[in-house]
Amino acid sequence: MAVPTILSYNLDGETLDRLRALCAEQGLALRPVSPWECGAPVGALAGIPIAATAKAVSGGSFSDPMLVICHLLSPQLDAFLQGMRAHGIPRIALKAILTPTNVSWTSAELRDELAKEQEAIAKRAKG
């Protein structure tokens, strides 16, 4: 069975420390992703062996804070999101759940897709 894991990108020290404490409390693995790893498939970073065979690409680093939530069941996801608030973790706009669709995407591709979704939501909110 896959280990419940949180992939983190570009978090400042205090936010990362709070996230580390939350993950330890909830029995989740925390995997900070380095900029030079952003060309690897997200699934490979989450420990999925088949995703590791996908071809990595170079480049694609970004500076936005982002979380990718991997292998959590619904109750675990709810507890994690509530725990973020309880631990005073600042809002991280770019969050995704690892899915069969995005498992082979690079971190940068996933970030770009999330940013597009955020823009579309903002446009709809403005009316």
Describe what this molecule looks like in 3D:
This protein is an alpha/beta fold. The chain has helices spanning 13-26, 42-45, 49-52, 74-86, 107-126; strands at 5-9, 29-32, 66-70, 94-97. The protein has a 4-stranded mixed sheet with strand order 2-1-3-4, sandwiched between helices. Strand 1 (5-9), helix 1 (13-26) and strand 2 (29-32) form a beta-alpha-beta unit. The longest helix has 20 residues, at 107-126.
Shape: globular
Number of helices: 5
Helix % is 40-55%
Q: Helices and strands: which structural class?
A: alpha/beta
Query: Which blocks of ≥5 consecutive residues have pLDDT under 50?
Result: none
The total strand number stands at 4
User: How would you state the average pLDDT, rounded?
Assistant: 92
Pattern of helices and strands = EHEHHEHEH
Distance between the termini: 44 Å
Q: Report on the biggest sheet.
A: 4 strands, mixed
Strand order of the largest sheet: 2-1-3-4
In oligomeric terms, what are we looking at?
single chain
Radius of gyration: 14 Å
What proportion strand? 5-15%
